[in-house]
Write a structure and sequence with these properties.
three-stranded mixed sheet, Rossmann fold, globular, alpha/beta, single chain, 23% strand, 181 residues, 12 strands, seven-stranded mixed sheet, 4 helices
């Protein structure tokens, strides 16, 4: 199926989720993620947009554990990561997503949570269409690439292009899917 059609279908389904369902499913996904990775030190996360899996409690939890948290900032056609300091210090960026003004990432992260709209069983992803994460990930890096998604966002197979970068694993409200290498 065409990427744009699939993206629209899943976004429509996601946008219909009641806020209580978003919070319940997000809590399950965040707990799974923290069980596996709370020992790490440096996290590249994202601030949730619309009815995405909410990362707010993940940010709070990791911040309380004194982890280093960085969030994306869009600069022109590129993306960089800046240190999260407080929720109050975040400002809306170009796409209406809250961004930090903290210091620029200057260490190698341990893990990145990569947002997306649709994923498949092989850990491929369809994002929002801007290519920001694929461009960032194409520069390489040895960090773990994880995605947080509702289980209905995972389909059997999506068509990929040469510039599409898969994630290593997907945490959903029902399971964890690991990429077969």
């Amino acid at each position: 199926m065409n990427k744009d059609i699939l993206r629209r279908q899943i976004l429509k389904q996601r946008d219909l989720l009641p806020e209580s369902t978003v919070m319940e499913k997000s809590a399950v996904i965040i707990d799974r993620f923290c069980e596996k990775y709370s020992y790490l030190t440096t996290f590249l996360l994202y601030y949730p947009l619309g009815k995405e899996v909410s990362t707010i409690n993940l940010i709070k939890k990791l911040n309380a554990l004194e982890k280093h948290i960085y969030l994306p900032v869009v600069c022109g056609d590129k993306m960089e990561f800046r240190k999260f300091e407080t929720f109050e210090s975040l400002k809306k960026g170009r796409f209406g997503i809250y961004e930090p003004a903290g210091k620029l990432l200057d260490v190698t992260p341990d893990i990145m949570c990569v947002p997306g709209v649709v994923f498949d069983e092989e850990c491929n992803r369809i994002g929002y269409g801007g290519g920001f994460y694929d461009k960032y990930l194409s520069a390489g890096g040895t960090f773990i690439k994880s995605a947080l998604a509702y289980d209905f966002q995972v389909v059997d197979k999506i068509e990929t292009e040469c510039f599409d970068i898969p994630v290593d694993e997907i945490f959903t409200d029902k399971r964890v899917i690991s990429r077969r290498i």
